[in-house]
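We modelled each protein-ligand pair independently. The example shown here corresponds to the flavin-adenine dinucleotide entry; the chain sequence is given first, followed by the ligand as SMILES.
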Amino acid sequence: MIGPRLHSGSDLNDNIRPVTTLPADAALHPLTTLAEDERLLRDSIREFAHAQVRPLVSEMDEQAKIPRALIDQLFDLGVMGIEIPEALGGSGGRFFHAVLAVEELSRVDPSVGVLVDVQNTLVANALLRWGSVDLKARVLPKLASKSVGAYALSEAGSGSDAFALQTRAREDGDHYRLDGRKLWITNAHEADFFIVFANLNPEAGYRGITAFIVERGMPGFTIGKKEDKLGIRASSTCELLLEHCRVPKANVLGEAGKGYKVAIETLNEGRIGIGAQMLGLAAGALEHAIRYTKERHQFGKAIADFQGVQFQLARAATEVEAARLLVYNAARLRDLNEPFLTEAAMCKIYASEVAEHVASLAVNLFGGYGFVKDYPVEKLYRDAKIGQIYEGTSNLQLQTIAKQILS
Ligand SMILES: Cc1cc2nc3c(=O)[nH]c(=O)nc-3n(C[C@H](O)[C@H](O)[C@H](O)COP(=O)(O)OP(=O)(O)OC[C@H]3O[C@@H](n4cnc5c(N)ncnc54)[C@H](O)[C@@H]3O)c2cc1C
């Protein structure tokens, strides 16, 4: 493993998130100043992204696939189990470390960023919070060392209205039988473990929703069609088919009928990860724009010498910094066990808008070269769009923020 092991102090039976201790003079620390362990992690991932991911970006986009060899390197780097305790083979880090990893990888490729994001902020996170001791012991060491995870809530008829899901679970001896279809599931092509939400008691409405760990290869479980997407093309997005899929009762995640809580609470945290993905994308697009405008000459000088261009870059840099403050603040609040619901929604909506704007500006500043696949910003522009859609659309984030500020 290249990345440092990050001690969190949590263990197998620890259902409570690790609490960061702030130094006595914490009030004097800028939000973006990184602790030594954070800086080491960021630098090692930055180096990895530059050396190992960057050369593959356009091929992965074209082939709509992340090579298994790269995924194995991500496991070796320690970024696939950031919050998983060291005793279970993970890196023993905090949520903030996961956010840094997603930001750095997304700076180079937001598809690799979201693979790592879903693995950490949704799948491992939910298991750490709600998994039984047995489930944690069985699944977490695999998630930390070789198995990809996926999170399956959405269906064809239920996206924003997620609790209207139609997948049914029925008791069947020491098993549950799952029937239904999930749509849009990130990492599904690569994953071995899937958190699947199904309703055990539709008469009880959302209080029947239950979370299950479904494993690749379980009878009645098939990975369906892979989507052909506008952006983050290398990240797999597939349908899941559950036909009398028998899942052992031991694979229920949390309590039966409490899956709605698992879903809401995990997604509240997950959207900070999407904020980090969009922040990384925006920072990457800005770097490309700065480099290019200093090299490209028109009218006898570098286009970065024109004040009109300088002001556009300055505004973009300001937006990226503001997005970083929102994302880091939400992540640090989460690690401190402080309320972060509003801040998480704000960081996701803002960072995704900044990503779209800065990637669009980068395309403009590259001129014709920005419009073709030989240069990196065309892809980042396509990749940016998803930030306003998944893990709660922008309208749903606004709904959350409005509810909080008006209550
Ligand atoms: C690439 C990709 C990856 C994804 N990965 C996953 C995954 O891993 N797991 C998973 O479970 N899901 C995943 N999703 C699904 C994603 O979370 C949903 O697409 C998203 O929540 C929106 O749902 P929908 O597509 O059904 O749109 P809809 O809910 O139909 O929304 C359509 C439009 O209506 C608006 N709207 C809906 N309700 C309201 C309202 N009350 N007020 C105002 N406006 C409203 C929305 O904002 C949106 O603009 C993924 C989707 C994509 C495209």
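The first strand starts at residue 148 and ends at 152.
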